[in-house]
Design a protein that fits this description.
alpha+beta, Cytochrome p450, five-stranded mixed β-sheet, three-stranded antiparallel β-sheet, disordered N terminus
Length: 465
């Protein structure tokens, strides 16, 4: 019998020479997006480098990414940056590991079954309609701030119901801005400066986390005293593990903060980037509006409309390809493992960058172009599975991925049904990676254009105004 001979793994992968990693750290801190793409273009599918005196690996081939996320998932833990995130998020699904993560994932899953996700659609539409009611024809707004406002109101209503006032929502929004600014490569976050060290940014961060804690612990206490309710928080309060134990107040807090960040911020960015792209591509915008008008007319969307809006889904997928809200994902090897023919030692940090992979011309011809039709069944059929992974993959795939797509579909259909956004002249999209892929500074300024005042076509129902 002929035996297949396997080449021994390489002891090292190609990469920049920097023994201590000081130069690499500077590049990572100043221009991650350009630097990661430069590394992949120059060194290939597995790149080895050093930062903080330790080995790091950038992995960009879909097959190797699948190995990290699926095949070797058992020996992959959370990356080192998780420790920094825990300061704000605690030990929620995004930051926990091991047995705690398994328990929490199981407890949380009951809130994300398809029937419940569809049940959240009515609240998404109701709150979005109310939020858009503040818009005025011709008004100039900051796109990301406006999307953040509306998605925060949706997240607060779906997660906490009537337990959150507008003032509470503003408190969380302001605190989240401080938290995002802290994580956007501040010296304190990069160097893991102890939280007790009294820098101005550290003090702001501590105050922001305290404000969120006070709000969420207050809501949890009120809900524990009141009657059981069949909403999102109610599901989490009643969820039990195999031993009959429920989540502690601290566990509920950590999951709630994680959902606020993941469920509000990522959707706000997806919508802001999508509306930016539509403003730059009026042909796509017209086609999308025609589909929405044909399905909805003047009525509000319902959960069943999702399957009737295939072009809207393509638009969202293409927006997430170009501007993935989660722009990179990390893992730490808990054992020696071979990835892409290279030995990755225990303790090494592994970077899997959606930003890099989603713009790889091997998988996406004209990678910088905005082409929703690349997601037609025919054109997407031959795409490697992990050439596109906006929600991660494997056992740790984002638990809220279907929730996020439902929310984005409901909100975008309401916006495009009644409004266009016009990008003010002289602006370009400048990105500032943090935990998510944000727009630098306050963001892009756009003019709101109400279709009913400027175009012929289905008019919205006064009841939804």
């Amino acid at each position: 019998m002929t035996q297949i001979q396997h080449d021994p793994p390489r002891p090292h992968a190609p990469g920049p020479r920097d023994r201590l990693g000081a130069r690499n750290l500077v590049r990572f801190a100043t221009d991650q997006l350009a630097w990661l793409r430069e590394l992949a273009d120059r060194y290939g599918d597995v790149v080895e480098l050093r930062m903080f005196g330790k080995p790091w690996f950038l992995v960009v081939h879909p097959t190797d990414i699948e190995d990290v996320m699926v095949k070797h998932a058992r020996v992959m833990g959370r990356d080192a940056y998780t420790i920094v995130l825990q300061r704000a998020l605690g030990l929620g699904l995004l930051t926990s590991d091991g047995d705690l993560w398994k328990r929490q994932r199981k407890l949380m899953s009951s809130a994300f079954v398809p029937k419940r996700i569809q049940g959240y659609a009515d609240a998404m539409v109701r709150v979005t309609s109310a939020g858009l009611g503040a818009w005025r024809d011709g008004e100039v707004v900051t796109l990301h701030q406006e999307m953040s406002r509306v998605t925060m109101e949706v997240a607060a209503d779906v997660l906490f119901g009537a337990g959150v006032s507008r003032r509470d929502t503003e408190t969380v929004r302001d605190a989240m801005e401080i938290i995002n600014e802290f994580f956007a490569n501040s010296p304190e976050a990069i160097a893991r400066v102890p939280e007790w060290f009294p820098t101005p940014r550290n003090r702001r961060m501590t105050r922001a986390v305290r404000q969120i804690d006070e709000l969420i612990f207050r809501i949890i206490a009120e809900r524990r005293r009141g009657p059981a309710r069949d909403d999102f928080l109610g599901v989490l309060l009643s969820a039990q593990d195999d031993d009959g134990a429920t989540m502690s107040d601290r566990q509920l807090r950590d999951e709630a903060v994680t959902l606020f960040l993941a469920g509000h911020e990522t959707t706000a960015l997806l919508l802001a980037h999508t509306l930016f792209l539509l403003s730059k591509h009026p042909d796509v915008e017209r086609r999308l509006h025609a589909e929405i008008a044909g399905v909805l007319g003047g009525r509000a969307p319902v959960a069943a409309d999702v399957k009737a809006l295939p072009y809207l889904e393509r638009v969202l997928k293409e927006s997430m390809r170009l501007y993935p809200p989660a722009w990179t994902t990390g893992r730490e090897a808990n054992e020696d493992v071979v990835i892409g023919g290279t030995r990755v030692p225990r303790g090494a940090q592994i970077l899997l960058s959606q930003w890099v992979v989603h713009r790889d011309p091997r998988w996406f011809p004209n990678p910088e172009g905005f082409d929703p039709d690349r997601w037609s069944d025919e054109r997407a059929a031959g795409l490697p599975k992990f050439a596109y992974f906006p929600f991660g993959g494997g056992p740790r795939v984002c638990i809220g991925n279907h929730f996020a797509m439902m929310e984005a579909t409901m909100m975008l259909s309401l916006i495009v049904r009644d409004w266009r956004v016009e990008l003010l002249p002289g602006q370009t999209l400048v990105l500032k990676p943090s935990v998510t892929l944000r727009q630098r500074g306050p963001g892009l300024r756009v003019r709101l254009v109400e279709r009913a005042r400027h175009e012929l076509g289905p008019r919205r129902s006064p009841a939804l105004s």
